[in-house]
Write a structure and sequence with these properties.
mainly beta; four-stranded antiparallel sheet; 57% strand
Length: 161
């Protein structure tokens, strides 16, 4: 059955000089239970515009997954940069082929990427926000090392359908 997850993330206290140059990258890594390889908690790599994702089920084991980014909305307000994204995926109940746990359509982990174009050295850098890190966490420009934002809120993941 088709399911959807809504993911929301915020970077706050965005520094003025970098405000117009800080952005969310259209790439997500998301933990999903994969009915194809029948394993729970598999990292799925999703790119905006791609028709399917990639389930990374081991060191060199990977296969296409029935998941895609269906919405990717970025907004900014005052000193906050916000992301709302929706991931559609096919899900079916199963037991984990290795450990026997029951599959669930709700994800507990996500990594979202952000980028920044810096005026000082005229260079770009990349960073990420994910659910399983200690907060608050200061975000620095990878080029000039200036503090550009704060990662103070855990990204939320909500099952829609």
């Amino acid at each position: 059955m088709l399911r959807s997850l809504e993911i929301n993330a915020v970077l706050s206290d965005v520094e003025k000089v970098h405000r117009d140059r800080l952005f969310w990258k259209p790439r997500i890594e998301l933990s999903l239970d994969c009915f194809i390889c029948e394993r729970v908690g598999r990292t799925n790599v999703l790119e905006l515009g791609a028709e399917r994702g990639l389930c990374v089920s081991g060191r060199n084991e990977q296969h296409p997954s029935a998941a895609r980014i269906s919405a990717f909305d970025v907004t900014s307000q005052d000193d906050r940069l916000m992301l709302r994204t929706v991931v559609d995926f096919w899900w079916a109940p199963f037991k984990d082929a290795k450990r026997g746990g029951e599959a669930t359509p709700l994800s507990s982990w996500v990594r979202l990427y952000h980028g920044c174009y810096c005026v000082e050295p005229k260079a770009s850098s990349e960073g990420s926000v994910q659910t399983n890190v200690r907060r608050p966490r200061v975000v620095h420009c990878g080029a000039c090392k200036t503090q550009i934002a704060v990662d103070a809120e855990v990204p939320s993941i909500r099952l829609l359908v």
